[in-house]
Design a protein that fits this description.
Strand content of chain A: 15-25%
Number of strands of chain A: 10
Strand order of the largest sheet of chain A: 2-1-5-3-4
Radius of gyration of chain B: 22 Å
Oligomer: heterotrimer
Distance between the termini of chain A: 25 Å
Strand content of chain B: 15-25%
Chains: A alpha+beta, B alpha+beta, C alpha/beta
Shape of chain A: globular
Number of strands of chain B: 16
Largest sheet of chain B: 4 strands, mixed
Shape of chain B: globular
């Protein structure tokens, strides 16, 4: 039994394999911890902080913190949910997220988290930044307006596609995802089936001319909240 | 001393507008203007966006007839993706038609029952507190419920075809994104005969209102004008597709079945300093004489027949009223609108019985080009969408001539005629000012669309002297 | 006990939110039992007749007049609700934020392919256009927000009934959407 660890989440007694992160261990037990920059198959980086939980009373990112035996974890509390709400609201306020016309609306993880956390309006002032669109490639474009700098595409390109084609430039609030070519996306080897394209949680990396094919009402999160698959054990 | 009368905002229309009327010392109406005060800038801010977003972005010009913008933009995109206006699959075209005719039904019902019926039922200068659909509901509950349920039916059709009642996503470049399910079809078939019966009753109601005082009704805010709309190749009324036809006040053809792809050869837009709404005109006739009316009245003046049984019967009565010549009576917009509502209900019924809605190809593609024009007959009249794109699929130019914009000159004309009819030499009262609004309302103006905006009008009348100093003021309120 | 009053307005919106209010369909008659409509585009009451309990705001602020109207609503309504994405964040009209206003005007009134002898409208009767579109809560205090483009009719209905009856709002997952 030494390879199983016992722990509690919000008072629920759980058990998971050694070597799992808190986020994975929780999912093994049907508990969903909201997250954005984490993605199965990718190295966790703990950059978005949406998955912040309390482990033994201290805040930690669930995606990068290994589970320890006997851990007491708090997840679904007012304090943590409000912290998560604040992060999501900041992301909405600092980009240009026009859900009404966005082709990812209904299947967007950022939006779905906001739905799950019951966000009616952000508490922060909208910044309306000037962002660029890279439409140079014949079948894929990157819309900077909708990018949340989670880095999933950058990691997926490198770790899964084995291509160093996407990276971050800039610092702080000016950090941007860019194609590693002076000609933009047109200058790199990228195709619609690449993992880095599928990794985008929002409407930033889009395969051209595939918009609005799924009718409203049948999109990923129209009827069921994000995380419902984990909670029902289907994930 | 010059008096200035301002009506602001104009209410029970869809849009932000205000009216100013200058009256000279002898009580003569010197000058009238309908100012559209909203500006959005859609033409510029869609530049750089991928073209396939246009049908979804640009429909946010208007929440009342979003389907018109959605489909006009989609038709322009059909051209861009090389499918063209005649290349859609039968399923896609019929689903779009169902969406569009459903919208015609809801928009016409909304306009007549929710916005205009208080004027027609209670009188143009009735108590201000009575002039709302809720007052209609209190006194004529059956009528109000009829209006609500007609609109609901149309809205539900839109939801079934576009995914949601307002600002849906059904039409995509080259087609549509869903079929109609059998459950949905049966739901609509269950009630369609009731909708047709109510539409017949609506036409009768307009005729009844008219018969009480035909002379007043015919003369109110009326003037001769040109009329323009899309007409099907065989001369039939068609809201979804056709060629441009324009006739003069006597019915002579000015434009006869011209291809709308070349609209720039025929249509220009003037700009005046006092309105954000432009003033379209037929180029060959020039700015002064080339203006025209669009919408229900214009459509019934330009088409030769209506391709559905009951509406055709009513159309014949309508045509006979003016001896086969175009009808230039402004308030007859209401009559024409209800005949169109009846036609929409009949078309919906025939579409619902078509198996193509339930199965078949949804989207087609062709050889891409960098420019597309899409026109459609919106509830309020002919709507033009025109886009150019670059090699990277981004919009580089967007030109929109919205239905209500086409009616800009006519609405200004209607304000002028009505002001001269009712305000000349009289003490200005709130009730008289409502007459001006009644004239504007007949056009069912969607001022939101027109300036790529939306809203209302309150009443604030100022009498000012030549120096602009306020002498007295009348505000609408209780 | 007089019925509470409700007022509505459309600033830089598209009227879709007002249409969504009408999409409560037959329930509009129930609403008429609960409240009395004051200043609103759907009637002819053009100025407030007294204090309103609720003001529903559609649209953001894109010109000086929108700001004036919004301030008068704040003054005359106990509770203000931002209805829809435009009121909440400027909506699609705020896609012009970051583009110089002059470019927007030039495109519509000078460069449009169908424009003949263009000019920029500038009559004193026209309100001044603001440098950008502002969300309503950046102009006055807003008490509640109903998201959506437009908000679903059921969301508007449930929220209004909750407010008018003092019951907690029942908001199922399906009714809160941003599109």
């Amino acid at each position: 039994m030494s390879d199983k660890l016992g722990f509690t989440i919000d008072g629920k007694e759980c058990e998971a394999d050694k070597g799992r992160s808190i986020l994975e261990a929780a999912a093994d037990n049907g508990v969903y911890i909201p997250h954005l920059c984490f993605m199965k198959k990718l190295r966790p980086v703990g950059s978005c902080r949406v998955c912040t939980i309390k482990a033994n009373g201290r805040n930690a990112a669930a995606c990068t913190t290994p589970l320890a035996d006997g851990m007491v974890i708090e997840n679904n509390t007012d304090e943590l949910n409000d912290l998560r709400r604040a992060i999501i609201e900041m992301l909405f306020a600092e980009g240009n997220h026009f859900c009404p016309s966005c082709e990812r609306s209904g299947s967007c993880e950022l939006q779905a988290l906001a739905y799950r956390l019951n966000i009616m309006a952000p508490r922060f002032p909208y910044m309306f930044p000037l962002r660029k669109l890279d439409a140079t490639h014949k079948s894929i474009f990157i819309d900077g307006n909708r990018c949340i700098q989670c880095g999933r595409c950058v990691r997926a390109a490198s770790e899964l596609d084995g291509k160093e084609i996407l990276g971050f430039i800039g610092r702080g609030g000016k950090v941007r995802v860019k194609a590693s070519s002076t000609r933009g996306l047109a200058g790199v080897d990228i195709s619609p089936n690449d993992e880095c394209v599928k990794a985008c949680p929002v409407g930033s990396i889009i395969v051209k001319e595939t918009a609005y094919r799924v009718p409203i009402g049948q999109r990923q999160y129209d009827a069921t909240p994000i995380g419902a698959d984990v909670e029902s054990g289907k994930a | 001393m010059m008096k200035k009368v301002t009506i602001h905002p104009v209410t029970r229309v869809e849009g932000h507008g205000k009216v100013t009327i200058a009256i000279d010392e002898d009580g003569h109406v010197e000058r009238t203007r309908l100012h559209i005060v909203e500006f959005r800038g859609f033409e510029r801010f869609v530049q750089g966006r991928p073209y396939w977003e246009a049908p979804v972005v640009v429909q946010r010009l208007c929440g009342i007839c979003p389907v018109s913008h959605h489909l006009a933009a989609a038709k322009a995109c059909d051209v861009i993706v090389g499918v063209g206006p005649d290349g859609l699959s039968p399923t896609a075209e019929k689903m779009r038609r169902l969406m569009h005719y459903g919208q015609m039904l809801q928009s016409h019902a909304l306009h007549f029952y929710h916005l205009c019926s208080p004027d027609l039922l209670f009188g143009f200068d009735s108590d201000v507190t009575k002039r709302s659909v809720l007052a209609v509901a209190a006194e004529y509950p059956e009528l109000a419920v009829r209006g609500v349920l007609l609109r609901k039916y149309g809205q539900e059709l839109i939801q079934a075809t576009a995914g949601k009642k307002i600002h849906g996503t059904g039409a995509i470049p080259g087609g549509i994104n869903k079929h109609l399910t059998v459950t949905e079809r049966d739901h609509f078939l269950k009630d369609i005969d009731q909708m047709i019966a109510w539409s017949v009753a609506s036409v009768e109601l307009v005729k009844k209102v008219h018969s009480k005082n035909p002379a007043f009704f015919d003369s109110f805010g009326s003037f001769p004008s040109n009329h323009l709309s899309l007409v099907r190749k065989d001369g039939a009324l068609d809201f979804y597709h056709g060629n441009i036809v324009a006739v003069d006040k006597d019915g002579n053809k000015i434009l006869d079945q011209v291809d709308y792809a070349n609209y720039l050869d025929y249509i220009g837009e003037a700009v005046r300093s006092w309105s954000y709404m432009k003033f379209p005109f037929i180029k060959s006739l020039g700015k002064a004489n080339g203006w025209y009316r669009v919408g229900p009245l214009a459509r019934l003046n330009t088409c030769d027949f209506i391709p559905s049984e009951l509406a055709q019967k009513e159309f014949e009565i309508f045509r006979a009223y003016t001896g086969g010549k175009p009808n230039n009576f402004s308030l007859h917009y209401h009559w024409a609108r209800m005949i169109e509502m009846l036609h929409s209900a009949e078309v919906i019924k025939s579409l619902l019985n078509d198996p193509d809605l339930m199965a078949g190809e949804l989207v087609r593609t062709g050889k891409k080009v960098n420019e597309g024009v899409g026109l459609i007959e919106a509830p309020r009249g002919t709507l033009f969408h025109h886009y150019r794109i670059n090699e990277q699929d981004q919009i580089t130019m967007c030109n929109l001539i919205v239905s209500t914009t086409n009616n800009n000159d006519p609405m200004n004309k209607a304000v002028e005629v009505t002001a001269k009819q009712f305000l000349e030499g009289r003490e200005v009262t709130e009730g008289l000012l409502n007459h001006i609004e009644v004239a504007i309302r007949a056009y069912d103006p969607c001022l939101s669309c027109a300036t790529h905006a939306l809203g209302q009008m309150a009443l604030d009348v100022e009498l000012v002297d030549a120096a602009g100093r306020r002498i007295s003021r009348l505000t609408r309120g209780v | 006990m007089p019925k509470p009053k409700i007022a509505t307005c459309s600033l830089a919106g598209c009227f879709g939110c007002h249409m969504s209010v009408l999409d409560i369909d037959e329930r509009i008659l129930k609403l008429a039992e609960l409240v009395e409509f004051d200043k609103s585009p759907i009637n002819d009451i053009k100025n407030f007749t007294g204090e309103c309990l609720v003001g529903l705001i559609e649209g953001g602020c894109c010109n000086s007049e929108n700001v004036e109207v919004l301030r008068s609503f704040r003054k005359n309504c106990k509770i203000l609700i931002s209805v829809g994405e435009c009121a909440i964040m400027g909506g699609l009209p705020s896609m012009r934020n970051g583009i110089p206003l002059k470019e927007c005007l030039d495109e519509a009134y000078l460069n449009g392919p169908s424009v003949v002898d263009g000019q920029i409208p500038n009559d004193p009767e026209l309100p001044l256009i603001l440098d950008r579109v502002y969300p309503c809560h950046e102009v006055v205090k807003i008490d509640y927000f109903l998201p959506g483009c437009p908000p679903r009719a059921d969301l508007i209905w449930n929220a209004l009934v909750a407010l008018l009856t003092g019951q907690p709002a029942d908001l199922p997952y399906e009714v809160i959407k941003y599109d």
